[in-house]
Amino acid sequence: MSLADATAAAFGLLVSGDATLWQIIWVSLKTSVIGLLLAMPVAVLLGYAIASYRFPGRRIAIWLAQAALSLPTVLIGLLLYLLLSRQGPWGALHWLFTQPGIIFGQFIIAMPVLVAFTLAAVQAADPRFAETAIAHGASPWRVMTTVLHEVRFGVMAAVISGFGRVISEVGCALMVGGNIAGETRTITTAIALETSKGEFAQGIALGIVLVTIALLMNGALMLLQGDAHAARGRA
Question: How confident is the model at residue 127 (pLDDT cuts 50, 70, 90)?
Answer without folding.
Answer: confident
